[in-house]
Write a structure and sequence with these properties.
It is a single chain. The protein is an alpha+beta fold. It is built from 17 helices and 33 strands. The strands form 6 sheets. The chain has an 8-stranded antiparallel beta sheet. A 7-stranded mixed beta sheet has the order 2-3-1-4-5-6-7, with helices on both faces. Strand 2 and strand 3 form a beta hairpin. Helix 11 packs across helix 16 and helix 12 runs antiparallel to helix 14.
């Protein structure tokens, strides 16, 4: 039975294509939204990290009321590190909007989510945005989108639907059109097409209750909140329900509160019909994949498996000489409590305490996935240190090791393609596809996750910053052997003092500096990179010897090149096994694990690394 008064749609887009602006304009196109001033004043973006990074890191739901039809809009993450969210939330949708820039066409990130949408059998409607740009080429963008769908294995029915349902719009100017120049100046054609063309939920409203939890929210007051779609029956507040876990275990629970999505917020209700999306309070310890069903007539649904983590990193309390200067929370106990809270909220991460109690190991899908957590914690006032990310291996059942393998995509000018291919060859990458265009060359590689770390900076260097680099988890493959690590040595501070321009002026001749003058440094801190292998201990506080003679040129200031700065992700990819990244609310510093040079030498002797 079709639930004609509901539409569940997912939005697939790279954020630069104007996803947030489009949803905002759709909301404002409805009369109820215009009448509700409180809703109008709320902000659509979910948090500062998302706005600054330019990606969606969590799947979020909103709803729109239009012509008596409730449209549930599901925003999908665009980055592969958050792929666990993508695969689950698409289960709530019946159709999708593929949002594409009229000038740029589909971006590499779009491929990741669209592949899952096609595999889920969703009908895809193409929305060509920014048709008002001077460089807009809507016809090319549409053809590129259809070619991409074909490459990703779309069925004939999906391709035919996409070709027949195309909208041209400018979200900034608030118009949607059936053709690029038909003169319409409102968003109603897009809303009309969603209501008329995208499929309604095909559900059994009279059958036994069946709802599956696909994402988890958390509240300090009520604990975990299970969010998912009601596939059959009706869910009511106060009902006694059967909760079936992924492993088959069963338990009884009571629905204490029930919510549906209402524009940008949630609205408490007494019942939710089949086909709608609900948030359920009262299921203790609910988890991804839990099925809420009728105890007397239970319904079985296919379990949801969360993708396994591919990288692990150890969080430790900071023991830096500068600890406590920039952050308010520095203790190991507070760090453990914060990560245990994250374990409750974030089901896509695996968080465990180390056997020796010295730190907490956090496992996730990639560098970005882990660094988002670090960024949140540093903004909360935490100071901590983390080691080099470690790739997680699996057993193949025959005693061999399997490691995560990524699909990497590089788009760069043709003259740099050879250097990019050489870089990938040095870190175990294998080229699988190459397409040479008039100006850009499209390269695809299979590469172990170990080889990805630190590769982005090297690609940008050899392409003079003109490359676009993207990678996504592909599979677990055979162990690829040893992969070359960072070749250049580091400049390491020998004392805990402020850096001096005179000293930096002589050091910059030996390599690239990471600090400028007047920066607080400490013994064992990385202050630069040598131009050759092997670490070098340096004095960053050396001043010029003063004599009793004066010269007309003696006081000419030192000319320093700007130091190289690292983002959190770049620092994690740069460090070696014997190094750490110190994270504070204001700074990201790199340091040696053992700060004292004498102690480092003793450690190298004990571990047989004297000649290395």
């Amino acid at each position: 039975m079709l639930q004609e008064n509901i539409r569940n749609i997912a939005i697939i887009a790279h954020v630069d294509h104007g996803k947030t602006t489009l949803v905002d304009k759709l909301l404002r196109a409805t009369d109820a939204f215009r009448e509700n001033q409180q809703v109008q004043e709320r902000v659509l973006d979910s948090n500062d990290q998302e706005r600054e990074r330019g990606i969606t890191i969590l799947a979020k739901n909103i709803s729109i009321e239009y012509q008596g039809v409730k449209i549930n809009v599901i925003d999908t993450p665009g980055h592969a590190d958050f792929g666990g969210e993508v695969e689950r939330v698409l289960k709530m949708a019946d159709g999708a909007l593929l949002l594409v820039d009229a000038a740029e066409g589909p971006m590499p990130q779009t491929r990741f989510v669209l592949r899952h949408a096609i595999a889920a059998g969703l009908q895809v409607m193409v929305v060509i945005n920014k048709v008002d740009k001077p460089a807009a080429d809507p016809e090319h963008a549409l053809n590129a989108s259809l070619d991409l769908m074909m490459d990703l294995g779309a069925t004939d029915d999906q391709l035919e639907f996409a070709m027949e349902h195309v909208i041209y719009c400018s979200a900034v100017n608030g118009f949607a059109r059936l053709s690029p120049d038909d003169g319409n100046m409102d968003m109603f054609p897009l809303l009309d097409m969603i209501v008329d063309a995208l499929p309604a939920p095909d559900v059994d409203a009279q059958g036994p209750l069946a709802m599956q939890c696909v994402t988890i929210d958390h509240s300090e007051y009520v604990g975990r909140i299970g969010i998912g779609r009601v596939y059959s029956g009706t869910l009511r507040a106060g009902d006694r329900i059967l909760v079936v876990k992924n492993d088959g275990s069963r338990a009884m629970a009571q629905v204490k509160q029930l919510f549906t999505f209402d524009y940008l917020g949630r609205k408490e209700c007494q019942e939710v019909e089949a086909g709608d999306i609900a948030a359920v309070v009262g299921i203790d310890g609910t988890d991804i994949g839990d099925v809420y069903t009728d105890p007397d007539n239970p319904v079985e649904l296919e379990p949801i498996e969360i993708d396994p983590p591919t990288l692990a990193i150890v969080f430790e309390p900071s023991n830096s000489p500068l600890v406590g200067r920039e952050g308010q929370i520095v203790g190991g106990r507070q760090l453990k409590e914060r990560l245990e809270l994250e374990r409750e909220n974030n089901v896509t991460m695996r968080i465990e305490e180390l056997p020796d109690k010295t730190g907490m190991e956090v496992s996730g899908r990639g560098i970005l996935h882990l660094s988002v957590l670090m960024e949140q914690m540093r903004r909360e006032g935490f100071e901590f240190q983390v080691g080099r990310p470690r790739v997680l291996f699996k057993e193949d059942g025959h005693g061999g090791r399997l490691e995560p393998v990524e699909q990497a995509v590089v788009e760069c000018p043709g003259e740099y393609a050879g250097k990019v291919i050489e870089l990938f060859g040095n870190v175990g990458g294998t080229m699988t596809n190459m397409e040479a265009g008039t100006t850009q060359t499209h390269l695809e590689f299979k590469i172990p996750t170990r080889g990805i770390m630190g590769l982005k900076n090297r690609i940008l260097n050899v392409t003079h910053g003109e490359a676009v680099f993207y990678h996504t988890f592909l599979e677990f493959g055979p162990f690829a052997g040893e992969i070359g690590a960072r070749q250049n040595g580091a400049m390491i501070s020998m004392s805990t003092e402020k850096s001096v321009a005179y000293a930096l002026g002589t050091l910059q001749e030996r390599g690239q500096l990471f600090v400028g003058p007047g920066v607080d440094c400490y013994e064992g801190m990385l202050v630069g990179e040598r131009s050759r292998p092997g670490d070098m201990v340096v004095n960053i506080a050396r001043t010029k010897n003063l004599g009793n003679q004066r010269s007309s040129t003696a006081d000419i200031s030192v000319q320093l090149t700007p130091p190289k700065t690292f983002s959190l992700e770049e620092a994690l990819e740069y460090i070696m096994d014997d190094e750490l990244v110190e994270v504070t609310p204001k700074s990201v510093r790199m340091r040696k694990r053992i700060l004292n040079e004498t102690e480092r030498r003793k450690w190298r002797v004990r571990h047989g690394m004297v000649d290395k």
